[in-house]
Amino acid sequence: MSRVSDLVDAYRAELSLTWKDNVSGGERVWMLVYPPDLERQMRHSLPNLGLATTQAGHDWIVLDVTDDFGHWLSSHRHAEAFYEEPSDLTQSILDQFETTLVARIRQTLEAAPTGAVVSLVGIGSIFPFLRASSVIKSVDSAVAGRLLVLFPGFHDPETHSFRLLDARDGFNYRARVIDPQKDLT
């Protein structure tokens, strides 16, 4: 089997487990971690992930944030200046984008049915402008079902830390990691 089909199977196995209702928002976040070079194949497998979700009796919602930064930046009043001099993108300006992105994700999570899986696709596109950890921590309280984060990077099980696109993202997180090598029992 391929690495991608192993990931889909691991996700399917995770779906088969009983969902506990008395867990925090952070524990309702599932990280589907894969090497960045599998990004295209993982996107291609979204229908398989969706099918596994609906077969398990849950609604499936895909939220793709890949183009959000580009759309936000192009509509900014100083867009031309940022294109000419990217170093003008200060942290306070990037904080404005983070606020916009978090609001969009929270809106999707809050509108989702209680038992739904919201799949967050394209989190790698915010690198190096924002930290995935900050965005996820800002939205986890709005997760009613599960938030599946397709995470192109790496997970260190010893420290439970994540590296987005092979750069330390700076978080040790409560999220559940979906790993084909992990024993689910």
Supply database-style keywords.
185 residues; alpha/beta; 7 helices; globular
Describe this structure in words.
- The protein is α/β, with parallel strands linked by helices and 185 residues long.
- The chain has one domain.
- Helix 7 links the parallel strand 3 and strand 4.
- Helix 1 packs parallel to helix 3 and helix 6 crosses helix 7.
- The protein starts with a helix and ends in a 7-residue tail after the last strand.
How large a portion of the residues is in β-strands, by DSSP E?
A: 15-25%
Total tally of structural domains: 1
Mean pLDDT: 87
The assigned structural class equals: alpha/beta
Total of DSSP H or I helical runs spanning 4+ residues: 7
Number of strands: 7
Helix and strand element order: HEHHEHHHEHEEEE
Tell me, briefly, the overall form.
globular
List unreliable stretches of 5+ residues: none
Fraction of residues in helix: 25-40%
Question: Gyration radius, to the nearest Å?
Answer: 17 Å
Q: Could you give a short account of the major beta sheet?
A: 7 strands, mixed
In short:
With about 180 residues, this protein is of the alpha/beta class.
